Amino acid sequence: MLFLLFLLIVCALLCELVSVKSALSRVSYSCRPSQSVVEPGEEFQLLTTIQNGKWLPVSYLEVVQNLPHDICLNAYLGHFQSDLTVCRLYSSCFLGSRQKLTRRIKASLPQRGRRIISDATITGGDLLGFTRRFRNVPLFYEIVVLPARVEEPALSRALGGFLGDVSVQRFILEDPMLTIGAREYTGREPMKSISWKHSVRPGHLMVKELDHTVENTVTVLLNVEGGSHEELERCFSLTRMVLEALEKRGFSCSFLTNAATAGAIGQWNQVSDGLGSGHTRAILEGLGRATYDVRESFSSLVNRAVRGARDGQAHILITPAPLQRSDAFLAPLFQQSQGRLFIINAREDGMSSQEVSG
Fold it and tell me: What is the per-residue pLDDT across 77-109, written as a single tens digit (0 to 9) for each?
């Protein structure tokens, strides 16, 4: 009897020794967002996975996950603590032999900006609960919150009028058309469109296919110099409104800014001409990553726009404070765009837009 008791004690001590040494052995953990780009307040999911890859169970496992400080954990009943720098999410569980636990936590972020899901700390207990082992799990996932949408009916009407003028002006140039090919005459085309030169070889009537040599293109400039944080946030939202208006009307656009950005896209300050939702989305992600730091002066940004613009290129300028046509550094831009310059300022106490075209 005593021998049996002694044998049980020895087995228990051996199991305790093994569990102490292997408390976190082959235990893996991950936490990632279901989306990397979200709208302000849009619900997404945090996907957490804990897996025990060994045959020995883990009697106690605690996870402390670092999250963005302003994250909202929607309908979450677990334990978490937030301060001005980080939100710590606490969870604990028992892991059986080769067990995998997956959890989905609904979350949202209230404001524009780049957020990071960073490292976690996992703590494993021994079989009898006498000791603990700790391990840091390095994680790095970005979540970019886009600028909030704004509704500005008066500004939208003024912008629509400006874009309408830009669209009309490309039809009144001396040579707005370019021959890009020929196709068979169907009888519905006007006689003047028949190309006798192209009709000779196939032996039947062909008509010219024409295209506009001048496209609907606009350059959008965003200046962040000289504005408060609140004014710059409004600038980012107004820029989004402009970009989405251009996309809706079928305008190709390029984009320049003097705002610094954080994260994976590096020194982002210019996007070339493009059209479509993918092009717009790329610029919006940059706006989501933008900080309040200024990479270059306002005048330098304007000079960069002038150097890269074609004669008559229409420009839309978004800036924190009101500007005047008489401002000296704006003169080259006004001249290069042949007067097709539309200025939007973010000051609530000033005019919301200044059309300087004509």
Answer: 888 998 889 999 999 998 888 999 999 999 999
**What separation in angstroms does the CA of 137 have from each of 23, 117, 119?**
15, 12, 6
In angstroms, how far is CA 333 from the centroid of its own chain?
29
d(CA 85, CA 183): 65
| Phi, psi dihedral angles at 3 (to 5 degrees) | -65, -40
CA distances from 303 to 1, 190, 247, 300, 331 (A): 94, 47, 26, 5, 10
Neighbouring CB atoms inside 10 A of 315's CB total 24
Residue 43's Cβ-count burial label (10 Å; 0-12, 13-18, 19+) is: middle
Q: pLDDT by residue (tens digit) across 278-320?
A: 899 999 999 999 999 999 999 999 999 999 888 778 999 999 9
Tell me if residue 27 falls in helix, strand or coil.
Answer: strand
Residue among 220, 225, 235 at smallest CA distance from 112: 235
pLDDT at residue 27 tops 50: yes
CA distance 69 to 118: 11
Q: Tell me, rounded to whole angstroms, the distance of Cα 321 from its chain centroid.
A: 25
Do 248 and 277 contact (CB within 8 A), yes or no?
Answer: no
Whole-model pTM above 0.70? Answer: yes
Instruction: From 273, 264, 263, 336, select the one nearest 304 (Cα to Cα).
Output: 336
Contact 253, 219 (CB under 8 A): yes
The alpha-carbon radius of gyration of the chain (Å, integer) is 31
49-58, 188-197, 277-286, 325-334: which has the minimum mean pLDDT? 188-197
Looking at the DSSP assignment, which residues form a beta bridge with residue 141? 117
Contact of 318 with 237, CB cutoff 8 Å: no
Q: What is the rounded CA–CA span in Å between residue 182 and residue 205?
A: 10
Alpha carbons 179 and 171: distance in angstroms, whole number: 15
At 272 the pLDDT is: 86
Residue partners of 26: CB distance under 8 A and separation at least 6: 52, 53, 54
In 3D space, the residue among 339, 353, 333, 351 whose CA is nearest the CA of residue 166 turns out to be 339
